[in-house]
Amino acid sequence: MTKLLLLFFFVFNIFSAQSSSIQKEDVDKIYAIHKIDPDSAYQLSYGLVLECNTNEDYYGLVKLNYLLGYLHKKDKNIGKSVLHYLEAIRFSEDAEYDGLSTDAIVLRYNLGNLYRTYKANDLAITYYLEAIEIADWIDDKEMLVKLKFNLALTYEQAKQSEKAISLFNELLNSSSEEREKRILNQLGLIYWEQGDLENAKLYFKKLLDVEEKFKIYSAKALHNLGEIEFEVGNKENAIELINESIQLKKEISEVDGRSLFISYKVLGDYLFERKDFKGALNVYTKAETLIDEVKHESMSFELYRSLSQLNYEMNNSEEARIYSNLHSSTVDSYLISQQSLQETDRQFNMDLITKRYLEEVAKQEQIASILLYSKVISGSLLALLLFTIGLNWYQKVQLRKSIVRDLINLKVVD
Predict the structure, then answer these.
(1) 282, 285, 289, 292 alpha-carbon torsion, rounded to 10°
(2) 3-state secondary structure (DSSP) of residue 64
């Protein structure tokens, strides 16, 4: 009952304030309503969007679509979130209010993050670059660092390694201590993936002597250096480094179980190859206690396969059979989870969502143009109409060519 009264109070206040335009306080109240009754918050938001469209209240259209984009993302409705962020950006081009530039940056930042999450790298890069241009114009140094860091991560994900390396190096001198450690780690990973082991080791070693609060990066660096040593044939040194990594991870309260699982699994593999079966079994068993940390990854069934093979080598036939069955069932579960993830990716096909949005915007603009022509005709300005049609036709052709060219560059259309 209390929630309903509170909700009524919020809604009454918002509607009673709508004689002119949406205010910041109204948006804050809708956000508060969402915590109590999400459905009512959405209904109220969409009703106000229609009202703002009628009143050509661009501030309201930007703020409400911004809010809806955020709320839908929070509620895992990713496709709707993207569309509302795109709408907020579109209306922001006609809006004028204090703080518009900051909103324009953050909208593109949030949209870029969504595109990057779903590996729509070209789109992510486009919106990060737009945000960087605005942030540079208003000299927002803090947002510039955040944007460039995420852009570098996107370049890395898109296999544009040289651009990622260049941007990460640019950020080293302007980042916080923690981000600096993250950058050093990312640079090491990029060089390692490129096969440049010397540069990879150089960056990982820079993380070994850091302050206590950054020791997680030292633990990761020790593990990575261990894998590199094993890769070049220094197996004993590799085992020693992985052991050091495990000990350090166990001392760090914030270390995640997945990271510890990986180190146990890798160490077990190295000991198994060295035919230290008891040592490998001990380490694999510790990894098994963390199996839930990787239950949706291939590492889960890989551990069971390794345990099955190891037990066969140790003549533990019954244990080997149990782990073999676990391997089979875990593979089945993994395949089901992968199918589910693929269906989610198809549902949130960012290229397709964005293309359809642009097509819808173009359709709305065409309808608006037709209405304009009708007004001109009704005013008997036929000569002006003919001139306008010719000029508009030429502009539309040029605009369409530009949009198609941009979509091709973004790999949205062929």
Answers:
(1) 130
(2) helix
Closest CA to 271 of 260, 258, 285, 257: 285
**Residue 85, φ and ψ in degrees, nearest 5:** -65, -40
Mean pLDDT of 60-68: 94
Question: Cα dihedral sign for 347, 352, 358, 363?
Answer: negative
Cite the beta strand spans of 176-323 per DSSP E. none
From the list 195, 237, 200, the residue with the least C-alpha distance to 221 is 200
d(CA 284, CA 306): 8
% of the chain surpassing 90 pLDDT:
55
End-to-end CA distance of the chain: 56
Q: Which amino acid is at 315?
A: N
Output the pTM of the full model: 0.78
Cβ neighbours, 10 Å, residue 198: 8
DSSP code per residue over 195-208: T-HHHHHHHHHTTS
Tokens of 153: 């991560």
Q: What would the pLDDT profile of 235-251 be if each residue is shown by its tens digit?
A: 999 999 999 999 999 99
Per-residue pLDDT of 158-182, as tens digits, reads 999 999 999 999 999 888 899 999 9
User: Can you tell me whether residue 76 is helix, strand or coil?
Assistant: coil
Contact 243, 267 (CB under 8 A): yes
Report residue 82 as tokens: 């993207």
Strands (E), 266-396: none
Which residue, among 105, 140, 109, has the nearest Cα to 125 in the 3D structure? 109
Angle separating helix axes 78-92 and 100-117, nearest 10 degrees:
150
C-alpha–C-alpha distance, residues 146 and 109, integer Å = 9
